[in-house]
Amino acid sequence: MKKFISLLLAMMMVVFAFGAVAETVDPKTIPDECKADFFEIAMVTDVGQLKDGSFNEGTWNGTKLFAAANGMSYKYYQPANGNQATDEDRVDAMKAACEGGAKIVVAPGFMQAGAMTTVAAQYPEVKFIFIDGWDLEMDNVAAIAYAEQESGYMAGYAIVKDGFTKVGFMGGGGGTNPACCRYGYGFAQGVSAAAKELGIEVELKYSWQYGAAFSASPELQTMAAGWYETGTEIIFACGGTMFDSIAAAAAANDAFVVGVDVDQSNLSDTVITSALKDLPNSTLWALNKFLNNEWETIGNSCAVLGAKDNSTGLPTANWLFEKYTVEEYQAQFEAIKAGTLEISAEVLTEGAIVDAGLENVTVLYE
Fold first, then answer.
1. Strand, coil or helix: what is 304?
2. Across the strands, what pairs with 168?
3. Residue 140, pLDDT score
4. pLDDT tens per residue, range 237-273
5. Residue 179's closest CA among 49, 276, 282?
6. Helix 55-70 and helix 9-24: axis angle, to 10°?
7. Average pLDDT, integer, range 33-62
8. How far is the first Cα of the chain from the last one, in angstroms, to the nearest whole number?
9. If you average pLDDT over residues 331-353, what whole number do you get?
10. What is the pLDDT of residues 135-160, one digit of tens each?
């Protein structure tokens, strides 16, 4: 049976300590390539590019920050065949990391499960961190998952409170990625809650159509442009470099984007806000457990991080909303953190969002 662990005060102290590193050291100043004969810390990328401005990059930043802070060698490995990578490709990349000297391997993305199960069994002395994963019931694997529905909710609520009434969601994973599904349903719940409070009706276009590989594509950009041209004001771009196509379509139509995983406002002027999960600091936390010989507290388990751990939310440093205030957001965040505002974490796949019972929202599924 899977066991889930909560992050207690010790975790918060670790995150606070490393948060200082994250705030004072720009990950961009740490080289991606480390000159060494062997590499103690490795990361095997998920589908998409290392520098995706999102999931891979956020996890890699945490990995680099930890390595730099502790004087350890590091390397990233990208499975062959890019977005078409198979389990065999991922197995080869993880084996290369282990043979290259890795004492611990960080692997973001739910598609890593099969390869990790195989390789972790073959290299029991190597530790594995499974980001966006679940308990694989192996002592040398520690999983971290997130309450993405919380960040999705906060983003959806914020944009409607700020005046957007025709909104969209384009998700990665083809509607089968649990993390993206939680983001999407949370977003829809937030849109619905804000619309109900304001006594207005909101249109929500919703699609997984061109997100199976989490990649930019001409087809995705054409679809996003079509939405914007027919009245959609803002789209939640939920899936790696899908962002590039959606942001390009937004820029061409004087429209807007909600980013995902990390603050993506530096990537495009079209970004109003981003639905966050704290990839760098949660990666730092798990790596610190390894370094301090506390692995037994996280191995063979899954830590589910959310607002209670300050691991979900919206960025406030570059607040661009005009009507919805930081104070209102912070009050909502505290309600979610305290558990007085509950958000469904149900994973709704394919077109199930249409029948989810949302109020004051017309869902147009494509």
1. strand
2. 205, 235
3. 98
4. 999 899 999 999 999 999 999 999 989 999 999 999 9
5. 276
6. 90
7. 91
8. 37
9. 95
10. 999 999 999 999 999 999 999 999 99
Kind and range of the H or E run holding 173: none
Return the pLDDT at 24: 61
Cα distance between residue 332 and residue 242, in whole Å: 29
Show the tokens assigned to 189: 């719940």
Summarised one tens digit per residue, pLDDT across range 289-318 is: 999 999 999 999 999 999 999 999 999 999
Whether 14 shows a pLDDT value over 70: the answer reads no
Most distant CA pair in the chain, distance? 63
Which pairing describes strands 301-305 and 141-146: parallel, antiparallel, or unpaired? parallel
pLDDT > 70? residue 115: yes
What is the distance between the alpha carbons of residues 363 and 167, in angstroms, rounded to a whole number? 10
- What is the pTM (predicted TM-score) of this model? 0.86
* Short-list 182, 190, 238, CA closest to 360: 190
Given the candidates 3.50.50.60, 3.40.50.2300, 3.40.640.10, 1.10.10.10, the CATH classification of the domain at 4-147+278-309 is 3.40.50.2300
pLDDT digits (tens, 9 = 90+) for 189-202: 999 999 999 999 99
What are phi and psi for residue 102, nearest 5 degrees?
A: -60, 130
Domain ranges (residues) in the chain: 4-147+278-309, 149-276+313-365
Q: Please give the Cα distance from 217 to 228 (Å, whole number).
A: 17
Q: What superfamily in CATH does domain 149-276+313-365 come from?
A: Response regulator (3.40.50.2300)
Strands (E), the chain: 4-5, 41-44, 74-77, 104-108, 127-131, 141-146, 166-171, 202-207, 234-238, 256-261, 271-277, 301-305, 312-313, 361-365
pLDDT at position 94 over 90: yes
Q: How many Cα atoms sit within 13 Å of 285 on the Cβ side?
A: 30
One-letter identity of residue 169: F
Burial of 231: CB neighbours in 10 Å, binned 0-12, 13-18, 19+: exposed
